[in-house]
Write a structure and sequence with these properties.
The complex is a heterodimer of chains A (397) and B (95). Chain A has 397 residues and is α/β, with parallel strands linked by helices. The N and C termini of chain A lie far apart (49 Å). The mean pLDDT of chain B is 97. The chains are: A alpha/beta (397), B alpha+beta (95). Chains A and B meet through helix 3, strand 11, helix 6 and strand 15 of A and helix 1, helix 3, helix 4 and strand 6 of B.
Chain lengths: 397, 95
């Protein structure tokens, strides 16, 4: 049987960061990936923080466009309130290219990456796993890292975590349209093909978080909505996306351009720190731990941060307590833990519309010069939620 | 654009072995009585994998985009959900 120091399941950002860490320390590392190549099963917007990704994987990130504008549109009924930010350091990226690149960095550090291989089961001896059974045979290792994504089948089969439920998960659907560079520039008023934007939309009743990202010669759009709400109202996700595109006017902008890809993904809205992070010599990271920032939608940075830590955990033989403690010390991960309360309020429904109504009222009063309205209506009615609302808007960025 | 046309944009290789199945068909009948049509698996699936024919769920697993929402949405934890084997299933270009 093949024998390794560390076996990593999943060649996404978390798995590649873990493999890079362990291989750089001279360990014999195997990464298995269920897709035909790294990234081919992975869905996100996708936007990354360039300096953070570079700090782990190096400088030559295959990115699409810089995000010069981050626009937030809050819909109170049909009229949005728009807020523009000018971020630094954000870029859009396609997951296939990005994940292949990250995986190749891990390979260059000495990790072996085998794709088209699915992990089926871990064989345990007491509290330590000995062997991973795959569809292509068995492999044994001193430790295992489960960077297996949101559908964390091995983690669940091993009793390390439970499945998500309808209250703590969001279903997203996404479409990518092929749009010529020059057309993208003229639609959004960009001076050149390096300039780009990301656009977030929040709508209530039903609660919908929409997004748009500009790539070099394509545009990705999509929506996410809590699964419990979709199920209770019998709303089909693809119908919600069509309605979103109509309501925002994006359907008109995209008219005539061809759809290149349709995809879907579940986003976890619960998990770390309210779950086990490891068992014996098996360490979870990334989406398998529910590590997606609920406000920025960024799952890639916390995946990389937790993957690197999982690599160290495997090298050092961390206990669950130490692994969890090290994660809480990491800013990428601890900020998600801090946002869990706000997130669950949001997911339960009422807070989102309260925030949006308040922001909308505040700005309307401000625009009409009605400062007593701000003091009277807004501060009086909403004073309890102002701190939460401000942290929502600030973190959204 | 119809959903079927959207699904045509995906590269797909079929695993002959279905990666999705129903554990207990009686639970689906109970679910239909309890929740009415369309049941949660049918309405949440963004790829029309599930349909209801003759009091039975029919699974078109070759449409599956591997998101996992059906497994989470099923009120009876009645969907056996695995990944396609050997690199089969969908292969995204943008992701």
């Amino acid at each position: 049987m093949l024998d390794y120091d560390v076996v990593v399941v999943g060649a996404g950002p978390a798995g590649s960061a873990a493999a890079l860490k362990a291989a750089s320390a001279g360990k014999k590392v195997l990464v298995i990936e269920r897709g035909p190549e790294p990234g081919s099963k992975n869905v996100s917007g996708a936007m990354i923080r360039k300096d953070f990704v570079s700090s782990v994987f190096g400088e030559d990130i295959p990115f699409e466009r810089k995000v010069d504008t981050l626009k937030l549109s809050l819909y109170e009924r049909d009229n949005p309130i728009n807020i523009d930010f000018r971020p630094n350091n954000l870029v859009t990226t396609g997951r296939l290219k990005l994940d292949k690149w990250m995986s190749s960095v891990a390979e260059n550090a000495g990790a072996m990456v085998i794709s088209k291989t699915t992990g089926l089961n871990l064989i345990w001896d007491g509290n330590n796993a000995k062997t991973l059974v795959t569809d292509r045979g068995e492999v044994s290792a001193k430790s295992f890292i489960l960077a297996e994504g949101v559908n964390a089948l091995l983690s669940m089969k091993s009793g390390i975590r439970r499945d998500l439920n309808t209250e703590n998960s969001v279903e997203t659907v996404k479409e990518v349209y092929s749009v010529k560079k020059e057309d993208i520039n003229s639609i959004f008023g960009f001076p050149d093909e390096n300039t780009g934007m990301s656009w977030r939309f929040i709508m209530t009743d039903p609660l919908v978080a929409g997004f748009l990202y500009t790539y070099k010669d394509s545009i990705s759009v999509g929506i996410g909505s809590p699964i419990n709400q979709l199920v209770e109202r019998k709303i089909r996700p693809e119908k919600l996306l069509d309605d979103f595109l109509d309501k925002t006017g994006l359907a008109t902008k995209l008219k005539g351009y061809s759809l290149r890809e349709y995809s879907a993904k579940v986003i976890p809205e619960g998990g770390f720190p309210n779950m086990n992070v490891s068992r014996g010599n098996v360490y979870l990271c990334g989406d398998a731990l529910g590590l997606v920032d609920p406000l920025t939608f960024d799952g890639i940075s916390p995946a990389i941060a937790s993957g690197s830590l999982a690599g160290t955990a495997a090298l050092e033989g961390y206990t669950p307590d130490i692994y969890k403690y090290e994660m809480m010390k990491n800013t990428e991960i601890s900020k998600i833990a801090k946002e869990r309360k706000l997130e669950s309020e949001f997911m339960s429904g009422n807070k989102a519309s309260e925030y949006i109504n308040m922001i909308s009222l505040l700005l309307k009063n401000w625009a009409s010069g009605d400062l007593s309205g701000i003091r009277g209506t807004v501060i009086e009615n909403y004073k309890n939620i102002i701190p939460d609302m401000l942290s929502f808007v600030i973190n959204m960025r | 654009m119809k959903l079927e046309e959207k699904l045509y944009t995906l590269r797909y290789k079929k695993d002959e072995e279905p990666h999705l199945s129903i554990n207990d068909a009686d639970k689906c009948i109970e679910c239909e009585k309890e929740n009415g049509f369309p049941m949660p698996c049918i309405s949440i699936c963004p790829a029309n994998v599930y349909s209801w024919e003759d009091n039975k769920i029919i699974i078109g697993y070759e449409n599956c985009v591997e998101c996992g929402a059906c497994r989470i949405a099923c009120p009876y934890e009645n969907i056996h959900w695995e990944y396609p084997r050997f690199g089969k299933g969908i292969a995204l270009r943008y992701g």
